[in-house]
Structure formats: structure tokens, C-alpha cells
Amino acid sequence: MYFKKNFNKSFNILLLRILIIFVFILVSFFIIIPLLPLFLKSFSDNKNNFIGLENFINYIQNPSLTQSFINSLKVAITTTFFSVLIGFIYAYALTRTRLPLKKFFNTFSLFSLYIPPLAVAIGLIYIFGKQGLITQGFFGTIPGFDINLYGFNGIIIGEIFYCFPQALIILVSALNLSDQRLYEAAESLKASPLRKFLTITLPNIKYGLMNSFFICFILSFTDFGVPKVVGGNFNVLATDIYKQVVGQQNFAMGATISIYLLVPSILAFLIDKNFQKNEASLISGKSIPFKPRKNLIVDSIMFIFCSLILILVIGVFSSIVLASLIKIWPYDISLSLQNFRFSNVAGNGYEPYFNTVFMSIYTAIFGTIFVFFTAYLVEKFKPLKKIRMLIYFFSTLPIAIPGLVLGLSYILFFNKPSFSVPFLDFQIFNPFSLLYGTMGILVLANIIHFFTVCFISATTTLKQIDKEFEEVSESLKVPFYKTFLRITIPLSLPTILEIGSYYFVNSMITVSAIIFLYPAKIPVSSVSIVNMDDAGDTASAAAMSTLIVLTSLFVRLIYEFTSRNVSKKSSVWINPLET
Amino acid sequence: MIKKEGSFKYLEIKNISKNFGETFVLKNIHLDVFKGEFLCLLGPSGCGKTTLLRIISGLERQTNGDIVQDGLLISNSPTEKRDFGIVFQSYALFPNLNAKQNISYGLENKKINKKEIEKRTNNLLRLVGLEKYSDQFPSQLSGGQQQRVALARAMALSPGLLLLDEPLSALDAQVRSKLRNEIKLIQKKLNLTTIMVTHDQTEALSMADRVVVMERGHIAQIGTPFELYKNPITPFVADFIGKMNLLKGKYDKTNCVFYYLNNRFLISQNTEYSFLENCLLGIRPEDIEIIKFRKNIEKEENILRVKIKEITYLGTIFRLTVVLESKLEENIFVDVISNQVISNNLKIGDFIDIKFKKEKIKLFESNL
User: Fold this and answer.
1) How many Å apart are CA A380 and CA A19, to the nearest integer?
2) Is B88 at the interface with chain A, CB within 8 A?
């Protein structure tokens, strides 16, 4: 007989299994399980008695609340339509025309990503509000024009500002994948420009188009910041939840409305996911990128269009900065830094600002580690396939969970020191409750709130790294974690930096996920913007917004600088033939 | 089966099967590999050759069967506990490590001192002729050089078994033939048992001591390159190793005559053919000769009158594609030396007589 090599299971495979299960438990507890108390709450009254569908029935019978649902849908559909339309034209200009100053238009189009929706709304007040620049005709120098900002109009403009760059990013990358040869073939067959557009361009970007519809719909359907500031009497679901929870302490109704907010989002998510499932790239690796030809008319029209969009974006940003620097708008327009003292408002001074900066740093560090490691385990290994698929599904879900819903579910889940087991007189200690009332819960909420985008970008990068590296390492008896540190991380560094900066910027500007969660002793700046605006102190709100935007831009600049150095160093690794 | 003097079974593959759900990828594979042997797994894509290689490495797990390496049963050992080095088709060189670091990657994890690592890495670099390129990153190396780094890396831990998964298919023709010789030389020098997967028959024939021809998850034939060429046992092997004309007809075993349409072919006596009836006649293009045009060929055996449909120049020879007037859709290939085509002034559309050499004709069971 033969000697039996009796290694039951190798230590590495065991370690890998433990890690995968550990990550599975984490994502379950951070993403799925907190939603359960929210569902339970929506079926209970405020004394925790089970009342079945009563909340939902009450909701439907309350005309002002149902109106909010319709309003939210109206806002979402209108915003989605315009954001994708504008995003598409802008993306088309950047990728398929000889637009002059392309680089400039490319960089500044994404500017509004760094402006919190709250701040956009404040900027709009200074332009289109009662005392706004346009409404008052630049302090009375020219005839004014009132667009009736407060209400539907204001929300739509604000949401488009917020959603347009998201659609733009998706559509630019979709339009960038093109094959010159298809267009040449069509031309040789005498196809008209319209026919080429309908038969080549559109089919190639349909997945990107669908995805941008989905993203814009969810963002605008669930956004809280813009309607809070310029919504006026035009109620939407997000502001209703806030009023129920913060104003009336009615958690049950808050939870019920959350379900109304969550269901359409999840539906949109599932439709999109189902659609993307069929995605197969029509463009092969060997394709020749499209090279636009000069076309004076098209190029000029695009130039005018893009300039208009940019003027609006920069206009809103400048008005925020300007508003923060002007003493008393519009009566004393002399410049001063007094709005940056934050002394006369709710106190706290600079504390909220620094809290937010630290919160964003922690989110960037821990979020990036968590996201990247999760994606790595899901993408690179073979054991526990079903569990890895579940982790993948859970990881893509947060994009469909509105920030307010996430925040509310986190309160309901994390403030419980223990769970009671139904029908048994038995309590289980909830270890996660230790996070409640600390900075930790804010960081965690942010990590999960922005998880999906980061996860997808990590997965995409990891997919591009040869899976045979792991196999080679195994054959060379090198444990996987060494290869992870020595090969995978260096090769993914550009993406890791990108994820970190994405987390930082979004944590700086977010309000919805943390407005229910922030502990009284840890005030954060986006919430103080809401409070200052509520108190009528718009100038201080503008000043705080300015600080946030500048900080985000500063971090983004550091990112650009670092990533340029990284890519310079790694350019030697990239095969010149492949680029 | 040839076996070198004093060599022993180094690797035994016993009854290995692999299926994904209902589909069989490998079915009852038996195979012995001898110490120091260069074995090629050859077959069209989808025949299971790469899966077999991956099962040997442990990167894929068999559904059934056992593997014994050097007297040890390794059927369920994890990859990292098995003794082999592997070169992938894509090389899978770590792009952020230079040639030297790639080669020493496995060594650094062993508890060997730095000097020893340095020495062994340099030896490997010398072995593959890349001393001058030790600091270059993979992207700065040519395809052939990358291939050599991958080979050196796979040999760094002095494995008992070297696995090569289509190692040359990404290279251009000239580099490929040069590397074929180099790999073969290194393999012989180190007496390293090697299994290579390829779909390129020229590569297999020129490098391997023995070739395993695989077809749809099973082994069609094992043998030395010459044996396979000379005595293919199935029409698949016959047509995969080199080129063979296959004509369907009837065999009259009492008279040793094969009937193809109205033509008669005399076959050398062979007891193996005794059970055949409806079967295939196989003959290689080079075993067909052009003969002088005669008036009456109907009565003669082994001769066909055909029309030239195509003439392809292949270097020292021409390959003629010819057809029978009565069966235009069936191509027969005939290889003739260039001079014969030129001196006889053969043109497309000409009628010629061709003769199948009796002793070169093979018969195969027809599975159609």
C-alpha cells in the first residue's frame, strides 16, 4: 500500500473558511439584521404592541401622508429624466465629440460631487430664493425673476445638481467603451448618423443607461437634504420620516414610512440587477476606441450646452462661498469672516466640523479595509461558494437602502442591550449595542451607507487581477495572506485610494444616515447645517457648507496627487502593449 | 509501451473522473508517468486535458479516483502540500515584482537564509539564460523572456514534478520553436518529470517522450510520437496526429478487399481487421502517389482517377485536393514533392490517377 499523506485540511483553507464566515456574520449584522427591528416596528404601536397592518392602513388613509408618497415619486421621476438626459448629453460631448477644453469640462463637471445636497439647496436659496441674486436682479441692478424656489421647483433643481454627476460618471464610462470599427463598418454600408446612433451607440450603452436611471431614481427618491431646505410645504417621504421621528418621536410611523420608502428602492434595485445580469460586453478587448471627427455645428452646440451646465454648477458653489463671506445678505454686503465663528448658533463652535473630519477619516480607513477585504474574499477564493454569493448580494444591497432608513434601523437595532427570544423568557446580549452613542456607530453607518459603490469598484479591480496569481502562490507554498499583502494590495493601490477618498468625501457631506444616530455629545457638521437652516441662520449654514466643500476638495487634491505618484510608480508594471 | 531502463512509475493516475453536475469532463483516466519522462497531454479544446493537469496539481478536485506521486497517495492533499511547479499559459508573473523577485517568491517563504536564496535564484536565472534581466519587471521583458521567468519560478523549489499548461501558445512561431528546444534541454538536464498540456500536435510530437491523445474526456491513445503517427488506433488519433484521408466503405475480409464506391483496394492481411465490415479506410496524404495516366484503370486495384480541385504550396511539398467525378463533395488530400507538380505541369481541373500504397492503408471501425 501507499503511504497516505494525511493532512486533513490545510491550515490555510481552514483560516480562509473562518474568515469568510466571519465576514458573512459582519455583513449580516450590519446590513440585513438591523432591518428586522424596523419591519417589526412598522407592525407595532409605540408601546411595542403588535398591531398588524394598522400603521400601513393609517398611512394610506391619511391624505397628507399619501400625498408625500406621490410627491416623492414625482420628484424621483422628474429628476431621473432630466439628470440622465443632461448627463447623457454632457457625457456624449466628453466622449464622442471634439468639444474644446474637454479636460476642463471633464474636471469641473464632477465638482458638485463635493457639495452636500444640503449646501446645494442653500446655494439655490441665495440665487433663486426670496432674496436671491436672480430673484432680486443682482441686488436690484436688473429686473428680477422669481422661479418659486420653495417646493417642487427647488427640489427638482437641487436633486438634478445632486444626481447629474452620478449619471455622468456611469455614462462616460459606458460611452468610452466603443469600437471605431463598428462605426466605420456602418459608414461603409451608408448608414445615416441617426441609424448609427440607434443601432450602435444606444445598444452599447443600454446597461449604463439603465444603471444611471436606477441610481438617479433611488438618490432623488430618498434624498433628505434638498427637500429639507428648499421643500417648503411640498412634503416628501424623507422629510415625513424626519418629522415623525425627530418632531413627534413617533418611531412606529417613522418605521412605517421607511417601509414605503424602502420598497420602491428595493424594487428599482431588483429590476436593475435583473437587467444587468444579462450584461455581456459587446466590445471586445481588441476594439479600437472611437475617435470623434471635427463637426463645427455639433461641437459648438455641445460647447454651449456644457458651458451652461458648468456656469450653473460653479454659480451655485460661488454663491455658497459668497453667502458665507457676506455680513448680512442682502442688507450689508461687505465681506467678513464673522459667519465662520459659529458662536451665535446652537453653540458648539468648531466642534461639529472636527467631529465630522475625524468621522470621515475613520470611515475612510476602516471602510476601505472592510470593503476591500470583503471583496477580496468574495472574488478570489473557491470555498463556501453559497456563502460568498450571499455576501456579494448583501454587499450590493445598501445602495437601495435610503440613508434615513438605515439610520432609523440602526437606532432600533443598536440601542437594544439585549434581544428577547420570542416565546421564551430568555435574553441574548447584543454586543453591537456597545457602539450605540459613540462615534463608532456613525462610522459604521457611513461605511454601510456607501458600501455598494466601493464594493463594486473593489470587485471590478480584483477581477482584473489574474486569478492564477493565487494558484501560482499555492504551488509555491506561499500562504494566501502573503500574496494578498505583497501582490494584490500593491496592484490594487489606485482603487484602494479611490475608495478611501470616496468614503471620506461622502462621509463629509452626508446627513441622512447620521441625523438620527449622532449622539448629543458628538454633534456633526451636516446636522448643524440642518439646525442652523432651521433656526434661520442661513449664512452660518453656508459657512459650514463652505468648510465641508473645501475640506472635501482638499482631500480630493491630496488623493489626485498621491494617485498620480502611485500610477507613475506602477506604470512600469503595466504592459505597454496593453495600454 | 516503452519504458526506459531503470525508470519507475513516478506518478500514477488511477481511475480519475471529473464531472460538473451531469456533464463528464474526465472519465476513468488511467495513466502512469515515469521518472524523468516528458509527457504531453494533447487534444482539441474541451477534451479535458487542462482539467486533468489541474487535478494533478490539486487546483481542481477529482470526483473519483486516486493519484499517487512518488509512492504517496495525494488524492486529497491540498495544493500547497503537493510537490510540483506549474507554468500557466498566461505565465501569471507578478507584475509588481522584477524577474529575480518573481523567481525567489517561493524561496523567500521557506526558512532559508538570504545568501542561499540569492545563490539559488542566480542559478535559476543562469539556467534560463536571463542573468542580465534580473531587475526587469515582467512588462519590460519579451514574451519569451517572461516565459523563461515563469519556468524558473516554477522550478525554484526543486519540485519533483513540473506541470506546463500550454506554456508556448502565447508566443510567435520563431520564439516558440526556440523555447521548445530550451525547455526540453533543461528538462533532460535536470531529469525532471514533466507533464505538458497542449493542443498543438507539432509541439507535442517534437517535445514529448510520450504523448497522451485525449478526446472528449477519455484517453484515445498513449504512445511515443512515432508510434502514434505510424499506428494510430482510431480515426480521431489518425487525423489529429498529422493528416489522414478517411474513406467510408465496405470490407470483404475473406479476400482482404475494401470497396469504396466502385473502387477496389487491396489491404495487407491483418487479424485485427477480421471483425470489420462497414468501416473506414485511412491513408496519409504522403502515402498516395501520382501514377502515369492509363487507358483502363477500372480493373486495377488501389487506383482512383480524380480531378484536381485545389493546389496548395506548403514549402517543400504541394498538397493537392482532389475529388472523384462521382463524389465531388469528398476531398482527398495528396502530398507530392514540388518537382513532380512542376514537371508534370499539374493544374486545377486536370484529371490524374492516384495510387494508394497497399502497405500503408489502415482500416478503422466506423463510428459514424
Assistant:
1) 13
2) yes
Say if the Cβ atoms of A477 and B106 lie within 8 Å.
yes
Among the partner-chain residues A4, A466, A475, the one whose CB lies closest to the CB of B90 is A466
Q: List CB contacts (< 8 A) between B73 and chain A.
A: 2-5
Is A572–B74 a contact, with Cβ atoms under 8 angstroms apart? no
Q: How confident is the model at residue A55 (pLDDT cuts 50, 70, 90)?
A: confident
Virtual CA dihedral for A138, A153, A124, A542, nearest 10 degrees? 140
Residue A388, pLDDT score: 94
**Same fold flag, A1-36+347-420+428-579 and A48-276+289-331:** yes
Among A1-10, B6-15, B83-92, B142-151, which stretch is predicted with the lowest mean pLDDT?
A1-10
Domain assignments of chain A as residue spans, ordered by start: 1-36+347-420+428-579, 48-276+289-331
Closest CA relative to residue B139, chosen from A285, A491, A461, A459: A491
DSSP helix/strand/coil, B10? strand
Contact A471 B92 (CB under 8 A): yes
- Whether B74 and A5 lie within 8 Å, measured CB to CB: yes
- Whether residues A478 and B139 touch (CB distance < 8 A) is answered with no
Is the minimum CB–CB distance between B77 and chain A shorter than 8 Å? yes
Lowest mean pLDDT among A2-6, A387-391, A429-433, B36-40: A2-6
Identify the residue among A5, A9, A478, A484 best suited for mutation to test binding to B, counting B beta carbons within 10 A and taking the highest.
A5
Residue B216 pLDDT > 60: yes
A472 touches chain B (CB under 8 A): yes
Q: Considering CB atoms only, which of A3, A4, A10 is closest to B80?
A: A10
CB spacing of B139 vs A575 below 8 angstroms: yes
Dump pLDDT digits (tens) for B304-333.
889 999 999 888 889 999 998 888 888 999
From CA A497, how far away is CA A563, in angstroms rounded? 7
Rg from Cα positions in chain A: 26
**Residue A62, pLDDT score:** 86
Task: Say yes or no to pLDDT of B279 above 60.
Answer: yes
Average pLDDT over residues B162-185: 91
A-B contacts at Cβ under 8 angstroms: 97
Check if the beta carbon of residue A125 is closer than 8 Å to that of residue A229: yes
DSSP collapsed to 3 states, A65-128: HHHHHHHHHHHHHHHHHHHHHHHHHHHHHHHHCCCCCHHHHHHHHHHHHHCCHHHHHHHHHHHH
A48-276+289-331 CATH choice from 3.40.720.10, 3.40.30.10, 1.10.3720.10, 2.40.110.10:
1.10.3720.10
C-alpha–C-alpha distance, residues A254 and A242, integer Å? 7
Chain A residue numbers with beta carbons less than 8 Å from the beta carbon of B85 are 475-476
State the average pLDDT over residues B284-295: 84
B71–A575 CB contact, under 8 Å = no
A50 pLDDT above the threshold of 70? yes
- The CA distance from B13 to the nearest CA of chain A, in Å, is 13
pLDDT in the model for residue A7:
47
Q: Please state which of the ranges A286-295, A505-514, B85-94, B259-268 shows the lowest mean pLDDT.
A: A286-295
The residue type found at A121 is A
Tell me the pairing of strands B193-198 and B38-42.
parallel
Question: Which CATH class name applies to A1-36+347-420+428-579?
Answer: mainly alpha
